[in-house]
Design goal:
- The chain is globular, with a radius of gyration of 21 Å.
- The chain is about 35% helix and about 20% strand.
- It has a four-stranded mixed sheet.
- By secondary structure, it is an alpha+beta fold.
- It folds into two domains: about 80 residues, Orthogonal Bundle (Arc Repressor Mutant, subunit A); about 220 residues, no CATH class.
- It contains eleven helices and 13 strands.
């Protein structure tokens, strides 16, 4: 069953923000890059070397470490320099690559169409966890991001497990919790055996976050939640509108200073991070770096089910 888990215990369990080592009482599974046995340890890397080896931004790296996606080597009483087993990091990188789906311009167009349809039907929403009204660009980005995550799951299940699912891209007056609405199996269409919700966030974010009503109101709740991290660039709209923008601004005073830097659209990678049952979510009022205006139900990314066997199990459940 769910546990009511507040920030101090979360910090103890997951070494958030790189400030602590692996918990003394709760060690991540070996597939999550658990503490290396020094007798069989691979190449030992300093944190600087680990950043270079993984190619990660320091903030992203610290977030992933803090969420138990991988671990550092044991430290003396949680003090001293951070060191990492290269083999652990290599395994983490390999698993991330296996879970990452490349989304095309056609995929993006489908999501943008959905986002614009939501906007022009006067769909009103506010920042998650605040009362502020979002501006156009942020609304469109958030809607596109959410739909990209759903398409990534659809592609992932088909490519890895030959499971074909149909997504709900219809516009609804009421919130519909289940994102997978049909399954194609042996040439026949059937309803899913469980309810599946798909949630997306930025690549740097390491928490699956659900609102209180999404979990406590039974008709809105899913049996399983999948967490995705689509790497959609902030300037995605500029990329598809590049030619129109250039036509307007060419000849302007500063055009020559940036015309060669305007990016083209490229495929969008989306990591299908992991999944959990709703009963595995933890009830909190804050996570590192963010205080909510009420209760949220969360799970750190490194605590999600995300091995090939875990995904195979979910594919059978759906």
């Amino acid at each position: 069953m769910r546990q009511k888990l507040f920030l101090p215990r979360l910090i103890w369990a997951c070494s958030f923000n790189g400030k602590t080592s692996v918990s003394k009482t709760e060690v991540p599974r070996s597939s999550r890059g658990g503490p290396a046995n020094n007798s069989f340890m691979g190449v030992k890397l300093s944190k600087k070397e680990a950043l270079e080896f993984t190619g990660q931004d320091k903030k992203f790296f610290d977030n992933y470490l803090g969420a138990c996606e991988f671990s550092c080597l044991e430290r003396n009483n949680g003090r001293g320099r951070f060191y990492f087993d290269q083999d652990v990091l290599k395994s983490w990188m390999k698993e991330r690559e296996w879970r990452t789906v490349q989304l095309t311009l056609e995929n993006y167009a489908l999501c943008l169409d959905f986002a614009l349809a939501q906007h022009f039907r006067s769909y009103v929403t506010s920042d998650f966890g605040t009362g502020r009204q979002r501006e156009f660009g942020q609304k469109i980005t958030n809607w596109v991001k959410g739909q990209l995550g759903e398409l990534a799951v659809q592609k992932f299940l088909k490519d890895k497990f030959n499971v074909e699912v149909e997504l709900d891209f219809d516009l609804h007056d009421d919130i519909v919790p289940q994102d997978i609405i049909r399954v194609k199996e042996k040439g026949k269409i059937r309803n899913p055996k469980i309810g599946v919700g798909i949630k997306s966030s930025k690549p740097k974010n390491v928490f699956l976050v659900l609102g209180e009503n999404e979990i406590k109101i039974a008709v809105r709740r899913s049996d399983v939640y999948i967490f995705c991290r689509p790497d959609i660039p902030d300037d995605h709209i500029l990329r598809i509108a590049k030619n129109a923008v250039q036509k307007i601004v060419q000849g302007m005073p500063y055009y020559k200073s940036y015309k060669e830097h305007m990016p083209e659209f490229t495929s969008i990678p989306c990591e299908v991070v992991g999944w959990c049952r709703y009963t595995d979510l933890e009830e909190v009022r804050e996570i590192p770096g963010q205080t909510f205006d009420g209760v949220r139900f969360v799970k750190a990314s490194g605590k999600l089910n995300n091995t090939p066997k875990d995904w195979e199990k979910l594919a059978r459940m759906i």
